[in-house]
Specification:
This protein is α+β, with helices and mostly antiparallel strands and 156 residues long. The chain has one domain: Alpha-D-Glucose-1,6-Bisphosphate, Chain A, domain 4. The chain is 24% helix and 49% strand. It has three helices and seven strands. It has helices at residues 22-30, 32-38, 134-154, and strands at residues 7-18, 45-51, 59-66, 71-82, 86-95, 98-112, 115-127. Strands 1-7-6-5-4-3-2 form a seven-stranded antiparallel β-sheet, with helices on one face. A hairpin with a 2-residue loop joins strand 6 and strand 7. Helix 1 (22-30) crosses helix 2. It is globular and about 55 Å long. The model has no long low-confidence stretch (mean pLDDT 90).
């Protein structure tokens, strides 16, 4: 089978207001124990590999196998971190060992009267047979932000 070589680009912005102080929302990203409590696919995935190195130049890895499905792998490098203000990463995704995309994501944390306004802006390039995955990525990120919100309200 010949793979049609092509690229697609996709970008999106998601903004959420969380009823938690900025230090708490920041900690959900900066502290490994907290991030493990909300990041990922929950019970829909069997965890395989995890690495966490929250510093400029540091790398995160999250790999897992969906039950009765593919293996998903996320590898990110932190390119900019300003405490309680922003996190910028570049990251790559694989599905069953096939490189599907490369993205740049910026995460902004702004204090508001009742908590924190969080803004996620992402620009991705999707490869070959995964060229239509931009909408799937946005949907997945929406799920992560929902999990973050649940963690902030219900978590430790």
């Amino acid at each position: 089978m010949t793979i049609k070589r092509r690229l697609a680009r996709s970008g999106f912005t998601l903004t959420r207001e969380y009823p938690a102080p900025i230090e708490r929302v920041w900690g959900a990203f900066a502290d490994e124990k907290q991030k493990l409590a909300w990041w990922g696919a929950g019970n829909s995935m069997e965890a395989r590999e995890w690495a966490f190195d929250f510093r400029v130049g540091g790398r995160d890895v999250a790999e897992g196998k969906f039950h009765n499905g593919p293996v998903s792998r996320y590898e990110a490098t932190y390119t900019d971190i300003v405490e309680h203000n922003r996190i910028v990463t570049t990251y790559d995704m694989w599905l069953d060992g096939i490189h599907t995309s490369t993205s740049v994501a910026s995460l902004e944390f702004d204090p508001i009267e009742d908590g924190t306004r969080f803004t996620h802006v992402e620009h991705g390039v999707f490869f070959d047979q995964f060229w239509a995955d931009g909408n799937i990525r946005e949907k997945g990120t929406r799920g992560l932000l929902e999990a973050l919100g649940n963690y902030l309200v219900l978590g430790a």
